[in-house]
Design brief:
Layout (H helix, E strand, L loop, with lengths): L10 H11 L4 H23 L7 H25 L5 H24 L5 H23 L3 H22 L5 H9 L7 H20 L1 H9 L1 H6 L4 H23 L6 H9 L7 H26 L3 H22 L1
Helix pairs in contact: 1-8, 2-3, 3-8, 3-11, 3-12, 3-13, 4-5, 4-6, 4-7, 4-11, 5-6, 5-11, 7-11, 8-11, 12-13, 12-14, 13-14
């Protein structure tokens, strides 16, 4: 992944940060980030002798991947068991179009739209569009996903060409992500989204589970299936957009799927599998970031490769047993 610093000077991210952690939440968030997180990592640095754990930018990077490791498998579990693994990839690519729209408006019309806001709006619309296509046209879900994915990416590409490539530099950071330049705004977004997603999943756990494993029975039991599907789509869009600034469009879907698939046959229940998926996501994130720092590797790619290595290791253990 590219480790480029934002050429925008991060004014858009400052807007997002203001919306998420400003006002009455600013002081508690700063206390959490500097005292709780900073203190814990500084203690670990002294205890282990790994002094890079005391660096603020590494602390933000670790906190970010810890958050992604929670929300990715938490939402991805419901997608994987419904054979909707490609939803994350689809929304990531349409979120790219949202970033392109925001940068295009700023470059051509001087209208300042935070790229992550544009990404969230477009990804949410795309999630609902897939649902509409499946329900009202009779198209298969994989065909609808492919259509929206390619359409979104094509739209973003056209916007780039309309500016003669002038916004491509700004878009690259969203395509490939950056862990080395994780800002307070990025961490604020991820922590906020993690709380929102966790609360939503906890509140709607039973209907989500019912629809995931038996949609027909859920309809017969008068579960509002469309509302549950809409909620899952929106939560997926939230996860994708909050993680894309760090993981990048190309890799963001991996942590929705790989940890879940890795632990699918390990847990004795769905809750256990979900918990193990979160643990697998956390391990992949921590190990991936550490390897990236120690050996100068691309952080996002390292995380995904560690996650895939975990999947291979689990499969080999099953084979030998």
């Amino acid at each position: 992944m590219s480790l480029l610093v934002s050429p925008l000077g991060s004014p858009a991210l400052d807007v997002v940060s203001h919306l998420l952690v400003a006002s009455v939440f600013s002081a508690p968030f700063d206390w959490f980030l500097n005292v709780v997180v900073g203190g814990a990592f500084s203690w670990l640095a002294d205890a282990t002798g790994l002094q890079f754990l005391a660096f603020p930018y590494m602390q933000r990077a670790y906190l970010s991947v810890l958050a992604i490791g929670i929300v990715g498998p938490l939402v991805g579990s419901f997608l994987v068991y419904r054979d909707l693994s490609m939803v994350g990839d689809t929304l990531a690519h349409t979120a790219f179009a949202g970033v392109a729209v925001a940068l295009f408006l700023e470059a051509t019309l001087a209208i300042a739209v935070p790229p992550l806001v544009g990404a969230l709006v477009v990804a949410t619309i795309a999630a609902l569009l897939v649902q509409v296509i499946v329900e009202y046209t009779g198209a298969r879900s994989d065909a609808a996903l492919a259509m929206v994915l390619t359409g979104g990416f094509a739209f973003g590409s056209v916007l780039i060409s309309l500016t003669d490539g002038g916004i491509s530099v700004g878009i690259n950071q969203y395509l490939f992500g950056s862990l080395a330049t994780v800002s307070r705004a990025d961490v604020g977004l991820l922590v906020s989204m993690t709380l929102v997603v966790a609360v939503a999943v906890a509140a709607a756990y039973r209907p989500l589970l019912f629809v995931t494993f038996d949609e027909t029975a859920a309809r017969a039991s008068r579960v509002h299936v469309r509302a549950v599907n809409t909620l899952l789509s929106i939560l997926t869009a939230f996860v994708v957009v909050s993680a894309m600034r760090i993981m990048g469009v190309i890799l963001v879907a991996a942590l929705l799927v790989v940890p879940v698939v890795t632990t699918a046959g390990v847990g004795r229940s769905f809750k256990q599998s979900l918990l193990y998926g979160v643990i697998a996501g956390e391990v992949a994130g921590i190990v991936g970031v550490t390897l990236a720092y120690q050996y100068g590797l691309a952080a996002g790619g390292s995380i995904v490769l560690v996650a895939i290595a975990g999947f291979v290791a689990v499969q080999l253990v099953h084979r030998f047993r």
